[in-house]
Amino acid sequence: MTTLLSLIGQHKQGRATGIYSVCSAHPLVLEAAIKQAAHDQQLVLIEATSNQVNQFGGYTGMTPQDFADHVFALATRLNFPAQNIILGGDHLGPNCWQNLTAKQAMAYSSQMINDYVCAGFKKIHLDCSMSCADDTTPLSEAVMAARAAQLCLIAEQAWQKVGGDAPLYVIGTEVPTPGGALESLEQEGVEVTKPEEALATLDAHHQAFSDIGVGYVWPRVIGLVVQPGVEFDHHHVHHYNSEKAQSLSQIIERQPHLVFEAHSTDYQNAPAYHQLIQDHFAILKVGPALTFALREALYGLDRAEQEWLGSHHASHLRDTIEQVMHEQPDYWRSHYSSKGHQQFLDCSYSLSDRIRYYWTHPEVKAAQQALFDHLTTKPLPVTLLSQYLPNQAKAIAQHQIQNDPADIVIHKIMEVTKVYSQACYANVATCQETI
Prior knowledge:
Elements: H1 2-12, E1 19-23, H2 27-40, E2 44-49, H3 64-77, E3 85-92, H4 102-118, E4 123-126, H5 141-162, E5 168-171, H6 185-188, H7 195-212, E6 221-226, E7 231-232, E8 237-238, H8 242-251, E9 259-262, H9 270-278, E10 283-286, H10 288-309, H11 317-327, H12 340-349, H13 362-377, H14 382-388, H15 390-397, H16 405-425, H17 431-434
Parallel strand pairs: 1-2, 1-10, 2-3, 3-4, 4-5, 5-6, 6-9, 9-10
Antiparallel strand pairs: 7-8
Helix pairs in contact: 2-16, 4-5, 5-7, 9-16, 10-13, 10-14, 10-16, 11-13, 14-15, 15-16
């Protein structure tokens, strides 16, 4: 945590530094993130979202302790130092339980926050921006802040039980929809948070924290979630426009400990990340773009495998996941209202990447393992691989990676992490120099 605070401190002192947060539970994505951090000699910030990981297992089947154990076991296998890993909890609040009463949803949220902190998660995003079943909508700033303060108190009590570094907090009520916009951006557009709204959020939370007796944590509130004007829907990306964010950007300069945290930064053009960092959006969240790259790699390998081994001997990973999504549509049905061929395109290629919910399904995992086994036993000719994954074929030819299916997929994912890394760490010392 000292190194993360050092990064924030360097930014507040005028250096264009930041950190990106990997919001995924997929083991190949996590391995790519750790390998990128090892290459950069930097921290890796890995965040689990409340719908991925919670006391009931989330869609991954993992509790917070399960997730923490998984990450640190992976780091051990990769010889990555545990002290350079920061675990974060994203959207920790009533998000998963909006269909329940506020009292019940907050009770579940309190248990979830406790479990996250006890499992060693140190960066806690308190998100109470969503309404529950018996709420009057829209929620007032005061109600959202009061609920966040309640969860902060639970987190502090949990930390005092388990010890270690004190948790750091992220707040904010103008939080983009997790996983991308549900409406078309061409119709709705994206509005940058107004400076007065951001200041009102800060004031409301500061007051609520003081009222409940946790005002002392305010110097550990390091991030404010706002909308800088970046978002994506199923097939469109709203790109960052620095000019439109300048009035918002300037208000954070008067806050001694705070930077902005930007969600849904996936799929931006590379220069945008450098500009976001310069404009004080120093914590950049990325998730679907990573699993989108994962899916591209796996689909490419699946197609190459069929040409290489023949359809009768292939794993049919893509056919398997499409069948499972058809039979179990709960994770995408409410997001994709399209019909016919457009629905097929949405399920397969949407930037929202609802496919990511299905990689842990037993049949899908078995098909992926078969694919990897086949291509490990009989590696693809680079000439064939080049048709579907040309950058990875070049990396093999240049002896940068092995002709191994997992290495190929990880290299593809690292095409995304590399862009974030270059923006965040271009002007920062390495972990070894800052610790």
